[in-house]
Amino acid sequence: MTTARIVILFALAAVAEIGGAWLVWQAVRENRGWWLGLLGILALGAYGFIAALQPEANFGRVLAAYGGVFIAGSLAWGIVVDGFRPTVWDYVGSAVALVGAAIIMLAPALAGTDQPAGA
Questions:
Q1: 47 and 20 in contact (C-beta within 8 Å)?
Q2: How far apart are the C-alpha atoms of 11 and 15, rounded to whole Å?
Q3: Taking the mean position of all CA atoms in its chain, how far away is CA 19?
Q4: Could you give the number of structural domains in the chain?
Q5: Residue 40 lies in a domain
Q6: Which residues form a coiled coil (predicted)?
């Protein structure tokens, strides 16, 4: 259940952060209304709370791993919402980032240790 919880929380955090940033972008760059910017600010705030619900206690580890999720999620958002057409390198970079995120979040538990390097 913990791995499922981690994945679900990262997905929700990605929707909140990427969606919030997209709404602010629409308000500022596309002049689509200040109210979209306000909704974006609320979504960005929600992202912070969602990230804090991760079972991992180390802020740095959670945010570092989320970076990989953010990369892949941003490209996916662009494809679905904006019609972005990624290159093969976008896909490769996304895959590398997601593998890195999985290593950061899951390897310590799989290895049975959560000790810092060199400890």
A1: yes
A2: 6
A3: 11
A4: 1
A5: yes
A6: none
Task: Give the burial string for 81-117 (b: 16+ CB within 10 Å, else e).
Answer: eeeeeeeeebeeebeebbeebbebbeebeeeeeeeee
Flag whether 25 is in a domain: yes
Q: Where are any strands of DSSP class E within the chain?
A: none
Neighbours of 2 (CB within 10 A): 11
And the tokens for 14?
Answer: 């990605």
Residue 36: Cβ within 10 Å count: 18
Longest CA pairwise span in the chain (Å): 52
pLDDT digits (tens, 9 = 90+) for 34-92: 999 999 999 999 999 999 999 998 999 999 999 999 999 999 999 999 999 999 999 99
Q: How far is CA 60 from CA 8, 26, 33, in A?
A: 19, 30, 35
Asked, for residue 48, whether it belongs to a domain, the answer is: yes
Q: Which domain holds residue 66?
A: 2-111
Residue 119 lies in a domain: no
